[in-house]
Design a protein that fits this description.
Layout (H helix, E strand, L loop, with lengths): L2 H22 L4 H10 L5 H47 L1 H5 L3 H9 L1 H11 L3 H13 L1 H8 L22 H31 L7 H7 L17 H11 L23
Helix pairs in contact: 1-3, 5-6, 7-9
Length: about 260
């Protein structure tokens, strides 16, 4: 048995073990339910996703380079499709009912739907980098500059598996989006603090201001106009940053929404 075959079978088996664990741990009483709930949110969710996705990539590359990486990817794809097949087989009633898969397949054709979905996976490494920065880079700003310290589990979690009738194909892709949206939203929130703290100056490009104010409300909520001066910038900073935590200007100030301090 050659190395690539071993990589393929070991990855397939490893993925199957994790899937079995996640699918059945809740059955083992209160402890199992507690573990299951923990696995749906950070930091345990970060570990689960790492074990399922990128850690096998590292092993594949380490043992057999690019071919090893592709072999691991193939095994992961097959493991996912097997899970989808079994899950839909178990939930036939939901499969026969209304589904996202049915609508999109009818609207665009099954092959376009599947091709588009798989194309989104190209973004996975980018989201891993964002998540890594949230865990490793941002805490330095909390410690050094008294930036707000967010509770990651309130952003990085998955819950769509609780939605009735969401099974198989629809469920796995909705969980992917569930995780991805949380990673993006937390990253955007952290970046709002960075931008308003260090660069509270509107852009000269009006269209860019219009586009970016969705994710950076302070563009229209306190950033200095392009016709202003550095004295204006300094005045804004003095006004906005009186005491920690140093959030973006438009952050809700009520106590129930205020981010946790680093202490």
């Amino acid at each position: 048995m050659n190395l690539l075959t071993i990589l393929f079978l070991s990855t397939l088996g490893f993925e199957a073990l994790i899937i079995l664990f996640l699918s059945n741990i809740f059955r083992f009483g209160k402890i199992g339910q507690s573990i299951s709930q923990s696995c749906t949110k950070a930091p345990a969710l970060d570990l689960i996703i790492s074990l399922i996705i990128w850690i096998p990539w590292v092993f594949g590359i380490y043992f057999s380079g690019g071919l090893g990486f592709l072999t691991v990817i193939l095994a992961q794809m097959i493991a996912m499709q097997l899970w989808i097949f079994i899950h839909e087989l178990i939930h036939q009633e939901a499969v026969k009912g209304p589904r996202i898969l049915k609508f999109v397949n009818q609207k665009f054709g099954w092959w376009r739907n599947y091709l588009a979905l798989w194309a989104t996976l190209i973004a996975l490494p980018a989201f891993f980098v964002i998540r890594f920065a949230e865990i490793v880079a941002y805490p330095a700003l909390v410690w050094i500059l008294d930036f707000p310290n967010y509770k990651h589990s309130e952003w990085i979690n998955v819950s769509r598996h609780k939605f009735e009738g969401l099974v198989g194909h629809d469920l796995i892709w909705c969980l992917y989006c569930d995780w991805m949206t949380g990673v993006y939203a937390l990253g955007a929130e952290m970046l709002r603090n960075v931008e308003s703290f260090w660069c509270p100056i509107r852009f000269y490009d009006g269209k860019k201001c219009e586009n970016c104010k969705i994710d950076f409300p302070d563009i229209d909520g306190g950033w200095v106009d392009i016709n202003g001066t550095m004295a204006d910038v300094e005045a804004v900073l003095k006004e906005q940053y009186q005491e920690p935590p140093y959030t973006w200007f438009g952050y809700p100030k009520s106590e129930d929404k205020k981010p946790e301090s680093k202490n």
